């Protein structure tokens, strides 16, 4: 109950901020931070809970973005429909990829997901309807509701998606699905011998993770008013989605949330104060630091501190 009260209060607070006279850049940067929460949480459902490291995050994000673009261009669909289309297509893609690759393990599964990025990027580059290699400029429709700008509206929409993704990850962690996925991560052979439906649970994780990644990517064309393959399929999505749960801690749903807020906020500050080129250096430095000094992330450090203080 406390979680839902806090989630509702946070969503209402962010909605109130969007209706205030705050600087527009807050919402432009806040959208990125909130999107990072969705990406990190979605990745952790498969990579953290089940132990299957997915480097194909850009493929799911890009398919969500291009699916939203197609329904907008073909039917002039509103943003909500674009997000549903992105989540549906990427969720189906996750199930398809799971059926084809989940019998692979370790590095072989990760390599297969990387290959997916290049395959889908080649398809989009040769699809003229969505702009091909040169991309496509978009004109945003009129905002709805009391929002002064489209950026403020997207900020609130992404806030709702972030809360929904964290709530879903929390539910999965505490349910039989989460227990089964953790058994798969610890020892898949032992889990199968114990009667855990490993393939079914991994497919659920693939589908849910893919759907959330697609939902996070769907608003991107409207956020930037432009879309093109090079940035949509950028592998930095994969690096960031991996780094944020590692920094926060992959064993608990709070970890990706903390890691995403910390890393994305630092990146935005570095972009404004120094240079956007340093973002990769920041991610790499923090990733190495936590892998070496705190492999269980900030959540693990907190648990150790709490145990030692008793």
Order the strands across the largest sheet as they lie in space.
1-2
* Average pLDDT for all residues: 88
In angstroms, what separates the terminal alpha carbons?
A: 27 Å
Number of domains: 1
- Range of strand content: under 5%
Overview in brief:
The chain is mostly helical and 310 residues long.
How would you describe this protein?
With 310 residues, the protein is mainly α. The mean pLDDT is 88. The protein is built from 15 helices and two strands. The protein has one domain. The protein is globular, with a radius of gyration of 19 Å. Helix 2 runs antiparallel to helix 13 and helix 12 packs parallel to helix 15. A two-stranded antiparallel ribbon has the order 1-2.
How are the SSEs placed, and which strands pair?
Blueprint: H1 2-18, H2 24-47, H3 57-75, H4 79-101, H5 107-125, E1 136-137, H6 150-174, H7 176-186, H8 188-193, H9 198-217, H10 220-224, E2 226-227, H11 229-232, H12 236-248, H13 254-273, H14 279-293, H15 297-309
Antiparallel strand pairs: 1-2
Helix pairs in contact: 1-6, 2-6, 2-9, 2-12, 2-13, 3-4, 3-5, 3-9, 4-9, 6-7, 7-9, 12-13, 12-14, 12-15, 13-14
Supply database-style keywords:
single chain; mainly alpha; 15 helices; 2 strands
